[in-house]
Amino acid sequence: MSDVTRMTAAGIAKSIADGEISAVDVARAHLDRIAAVDGRVHAFLHVDTEGALAAAAKVDAARAAGEPLGPLAGVPVAVKDVVTTKGVPSTAGSKILEGWKPPYDATIVSRMKDAGLVMLGKTNMDEFAMGSSTEYSAYGPTFNPWDLTRIPGGSGGGSSASLAAYEAPLAVGTDTGGSIRQPGAVTGTVGAKPTYGGTSRYGLIAFSSSLDTPGPCARTVEDAALLHAVIAGHDPRDSTSIPATVPDVVGAARLGATGDLTGVKLGVVREFAGEGAEPGVMAVFRDSLETLVKLGAEVVEVSCPHFQYALPAYYLIAPSECSSNLARFDGVRYGLRVGDDGQRSLEEVMSLTREAGFGAEVKRRIMIGTYALSSGYYDAYYGQAQKVRTLISRDFAAAFDQVDVLVSPTTPFVAFELGARTADPYQMYLADLFTIPSNLYGGPAISVPAGLSSGLPVGLQVMAPTLADDRMYRVAAALETAVPPLTPPAL
User: Fold this and answer.
1) Cβ neighbours of residue 378 under 8 Å, at least 6 residues apart?
2) pLDDT in tens, 75-119
3) What is the C-alpha separation between 144 and 483, in angstroms, rounded?
4) Of 80, 113, 122, 193, which one is the catalytic site residue?
5) Which of 137, 179, 323, 408 does the annotation list as catalytic?
6) What structural domains and CATH numbers belong to the chain?
7) Is residue 247 helix, strand or coil?
8) Which residues contact 83 (CB under 8 A, 6 or more apart)?
9) In angstroms, rounded to a whole number, what is the distance separating the alpha carbons of residues 229 and 42?
10) Beta carbons of 391 and 375 less than 8 angstroms apart
11) Does this model's pTM top 0.90?
């Protein structure tokens, strides 16, 4: 394996800017790594070799001309396949969009291109981001580089696996109920969900419009912060985008890297204690708390009594919104079209297309959501879930009156074996037990590697108030300085 594939994104960018290595050579090294190992990992659905080398050549030309380079210019990035990319296949992990090439870039893709990042390709995911293991992709599962018999998390398992397999130094994911943080935790990488509205959803293939949040994935906290700073900021094309200044996440990560948390108050949620996390996961969490205290932080127990209702509320709100959003996939305008033989009605063609194009988990959630929104049940299900969401937001507000951030394990368990939970949707949904509250609230949260349990990675989650993304980066970076790097076995 080329040494450059093990470098941090910040280190790669500096080496390119200093003329020590060309962006084209960096791109080639990562493309070679993908060719060597992705047959076993299956992190990518599409590799854009030609586009990556062309983008890298532009960076090299800019440097040669003496033009100023951005802090991540020339750094390769993998993009979750739920984000639209102009002229590059964007399937959302679904057969219903197989082969679709969007005519435009998502805002976060445009911003990465403008900053000189080099897109390697599109990563595998649970279909339409509905899943916690990347086993629900229509194109086959992704495998965890730590143990190829285990899941890499979901829905963004392709992005996290590409990092752990050293196929990319950076990746982009989306987080609706934990789909950035949970894969980060089980692959020993960093995954950050920004404040909802802090990163644009324009060009994101929608699952749940009030929850979906694009964010950075990386192998270090500083690298995640650098990518966060590139993709964040107000976008007038997204009606939910917040017209506010992006917090100084890079400065916060670098401050945290000094290892000083003096004066920082960490809240431990009392209600999470009885949620059945594996003993090994809880042991790593307790060790992390001790480490953070040694760095100067104060730990305070807080009560968030409505967090226990987060999981059921989420699984009414998210499916309801997906039921509405996925109605656009009808086989008429783009994507798959089945049964159009000139004899069938439009309604029959739409029905046959959806039957063939949507997978079982997507159909399950569409049916749940349609039922929850139906006449006579709306108030009892969707309406009640939204009330619970309000109570959870109030719990966060009350907690942040007492502490600066909340901390918890990212997931209740380490990466489980492929196929172990697909027959029991509820057991699969439990993977997001600790991550979902932040999505319902809209605040930022990050998962940072905290240690190992049974030889597999465990993540610590740091949750912060809305628009205080910098706080989570500071705490995560501080822990990172005190935890030995987690290095997966060689592939």
Assistant:
1) 372
2) 999 999 999 999 999 999 999 999 999 999 999 999 999 999 999
3) 21
4) 80
5) 179
6) 3-259+415-482 (3.90.1300.10)
7) coil
8) 90, 106, 108, 109, 122, 172, 174, 203, 204, 205, 214
9) 29
10) no
11) yes
